[in-house]
């Protein structure tokens, strides 16, 4: 009798332990977490907690986020590729200069490049775009219209025409006008020289939350091409893993010259604006104020929306950027024949 009692108690003990385990598993399934999971949750929460947010990327940081934006004119002639420093830019505007070649206006704020270039000459509409971010404007040369603006006393700027061989250095591996470079160290020296502020209080761009970014709907956009009349083709290819678009020129990846880092962004914003040739040199006037049709491409999908000029910035009208880096292509009227997606 005692033997059967011992066996029965052992069975009851096993069943009780099993029931306790089942209860614990059920509690976990119902949303409770054990001590280990609670620790992981606290760790994740701590990692997601930042003391500041960068205004042009929407990304959190525990560093100061009030450094002055710096806008640099970067050469995009085929003899100037690969360029230096573009991978550090928060925003890059790609806009036609003369002919069918574009130039870049690279705006740095959350990260500064060790070296950037080749630096090229200014046009009035690039200066206009840079001032939407209260940027220090950096260029080497200028059109007559740009020169009038720069030396009118309203724009903090550094120009290679004033500081060639001093702040701007000529590289021996390229020929002029494709060999002017400037370091961020020299940009800082230049700011002190001209008495420009090196910090500021930039207004934040509009960004989607993580949830709203995950819920973006639109046309699938994995490979995007922008074709210019002169035969130049700009491409963007989406990485599902990285959630970024890698840029290319004529099927050649756009990379950083020094580090070979691919140029990849989280937002591709293609905007249509009226272009007009204004002189025999082929210089242009571009309407950056009236708004118009646009394509906002992010997270593998494209949305046909509009753009607007908001205090000097070209931004989505009816949309917002996902946190991260942004590339803005300004193309002439006729975007439907210029941009292809698949």
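^ structure tokens above, recovered residues below v
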């Amino acid at each position: 009798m005692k033997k059967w009692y011992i066996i029965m108690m052992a069975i009851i003990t096993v069943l009780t332990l099993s029931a306790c385990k089942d209860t614990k598993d059920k509690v976990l399934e119902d949303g409770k977490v054990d001590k280990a999971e609670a620790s992981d949750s606290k760790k994740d929460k701590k990692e997601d907690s930042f003391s500041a947010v960068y205004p042009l990327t929407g990304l959190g940081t525990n560093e100061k986020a009030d450094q002055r934006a710096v806008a640099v004119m970067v050469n995009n002639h085929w003899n100037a590729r690969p360029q230096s420093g573009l991978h550090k830019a928060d925003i890059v505007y790609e806009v036609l200069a003369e002919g069918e070649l574009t130039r870049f206006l690279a705006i740095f704020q959350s990260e500064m490049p060790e070296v950037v270039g080749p630096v090229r000459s200014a046009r009035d509409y690039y200066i206009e775009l840079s001032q939407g971010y209260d940027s220090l404007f950096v260029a080497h040369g200028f059109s007559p219209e740009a020169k009038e603006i720069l030396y009118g006393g309203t724009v903090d700027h550094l120009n290679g025409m004033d500081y060639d061989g001093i702040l701007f250095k000529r590289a021996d591996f390229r020929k002029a006008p494709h060999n002017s470079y400037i370091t961020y160290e020299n940009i800082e020296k230049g700011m002190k020289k001209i008495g420009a502020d090196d910090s500021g209080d930039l207004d934040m761009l509009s960004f989607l939350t993580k949830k709203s970014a995950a819920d973006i709907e639109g046309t699938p956009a994995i490979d995007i091409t922008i074709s210019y009349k002169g035969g130049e083709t700009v491409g963007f290819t989406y990485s599902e893993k990285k959630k970024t678009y890698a840029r290319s020129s004529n099927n050649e990846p756009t990379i950083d010259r020094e580090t070979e880092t691919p140029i990849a962004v989280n937002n591709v914003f293609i905007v249509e604006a009226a272009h007009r040739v204004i002189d025999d040199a082929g210089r242009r006037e571009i309407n950056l104020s009236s708004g118009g049709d646009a394509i906002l491409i992010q997270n593998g999908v494209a949305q046909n929306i509009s753009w607007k000029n908001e205090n000097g910035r070209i931004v989505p009208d009816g949309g917002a950027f996902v946190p991260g880096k942004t590339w803005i292509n300004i193309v002439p009227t006729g975007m439907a024949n210029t941009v292809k997606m698949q």
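Residues 68 and 91 are 14 Å apart (CA to CA).
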